[in-house]
Amino acid sequence: MPTVKRTATAVVDSVVRNPDALLWLTRLHEKDTHSHNRSLRTSIWVIAFARHLGLEKEKMNNLSIALLLCNIGKAKLPRELLEKEDKLDGEDLREYQKHVDLTLDALKIMGRTPQAIITIIRAHCAHGTDGAGDLFSGATGGRIYLLYWYLSGRLYCGVKLKRNCNYC
Asked: 10-residue block means of pLDDT along the chain (168 residues)?
């Protein structure tokens, strides 16, 4: 019971700090269970690996939050697009890639999102949209963000490959 109480307290604290974040995760789960679950799995794997590397708790928190929220913009995409099994190209791919901007817009509306989290999301998501990434845009401590990007991207791709997804 103490573990359940700690978890419930953490959820309550999170909603008090930023009520929109968990609501967005709930919306994503309702719209696209796959993306929601992948965000959760990737966050867990990255934190386990980051802990193994000895990263500081604050950096692990930022990385975890960024990976949990990186797909919330998909909740605004059409369900048919998210459920499409064929490889996306052309207009479908451009529409799908809008989830990055939709995510960043949602975070801007939420307010109080640390710049480190925004930077991680930009870098993490951009590597999948145009191959370039936006790694150092507004970032300080570039090596830390490079590590975040590397960890999140590699583990995210590993989770993706396990599912044989063509576009996410």
From this structure: 76 72 84 86 83 84 86 92 87 90 90 86 63 42 49 50 46
| Cα–Cα distance list, 111 to 21, 137, 158, 167 (Å) | 10, 19, 31, 30
Taking the whole predicted model, whether its pTM rises above 0.85 is answered as no
CB 73 within 8 A of CB 102: yes
In angstroms, the CA 31 to CA 85 distance is: 16
The DSSP secondary structure of 70-136, one letter per residue, reads TTGGGGGS-HHHHH--SPP-HHHHHHHHTHHHHHHHHHHHH----HHHHHHHHHHHHHHHTSS--TT
**Phi and psi, residue 133, nearest 5°:** 75, 160
Q: What is the pLDDT of residue 91?
A: 92
**C-alpha span between 1 and 102 (Å, rounded):** 38
